[in-house]
Predict the structure.
Amino acid sequence: MKKQSVPLFDPGAIPDNLCPIATDYSRMLPGDWRSQRPVVDRRKCVKCAVCWLYCPVQCVVERAGWFDMNLATCKGCGICVQECPHGAIAMIDEED
Ligand code: SF4
Ligand code: SF4
């Protein structure tokens, strides 16, 4: 018996108002929902760039003597704190 082919994807079947938010460009800024932010201890940072490598949103920026975080885009996930091999980053509460 011959198998019937079933289309896996029919673009015409998807309503055009399914996800209206996705039609607008979003920079995914943290706004006021970030509960903690990273702070770098400049005396401990050796500029190894591990934090830059692991930050999922590329908000680690290079300074003259250390690496810093762009808090305009940082999501406060804390991955950089976990990955820094020199313990140079700490998370502090946003209220502090
Ligand atoms: S991982 Fe730590 S030591 Fe390395 S650049 Fe980042 S803050 Fe500095
Ligand atoms: S807390 Fe997360 S988003 Fe912010 S700098 Fe560290 S790794 Fe990047």
Residues 32-93 form a domain with the Alpha-Beta Plaits fold (CATH 3.30.70.20).
